[in-house]
Amino acid sequence: MTKEEMDFFENLFRSLETEMHQQFDAVNTRFDGVDARLDQLNARMERIGGLVNGGGRALAKINAWAESNDVLMADLLRRQQDLEQRLRKLEGK
User: Fold this and answer.
1) CA angle, 14 then 28 then 22, to 5°
2) 35: which DSSP letter?
3) Distance (Å, rounded) from C-alpha 9 to C-alpha 11?
4) How far apart are CA 17 and CA 20, in angstroms?
């Protein structure tokens, strides 16, 4: 192989290397945009997850409060009926 042929191939490989680096840089730039969008989506999903978890906890607390309130109201109603019954007995005598 002659010196000119070697120089030709070396220049060809160098130009290919330069072109590949330019293309890779362009692809990396596009991926930077994709990474930014994925970061935004991740932040949004974390906020939504926090709202869902907080809402679930709030609903569980409301449900527990309602159940305890039902028991309390049933107890108050029973006590009121007992008092009314005692009052009827006293008034009837």
Assistant:
1) 25
2) H
3) 5
4) 5
Measure the CA angle with vertex 66, ends 56 and 74; round to 5°: 165
d(CA 26, CA 35): 14
pLDDT in tens, 56-74: 899 999 999 999 999 999 9
End-to-end Cα distance, the chain = 132
CB atoms within 10 A of CB 73: 10
Mean predicted lDDT score pLDDT of the chain: 90
CA angle (9 as vertex; 15, 29 as ends), nearest 5: 20
| pTM of the predicted protein model | 0.47
C-alpha 50, offset from chain centre: 6
Residue type, 90: L
CA dihedral 13, 19, 23, 26 (to 10 degrees): 140
Instruction: Give the number of other Cβ atoms within 10 Å of residue 4's Cβ.
Output: 8
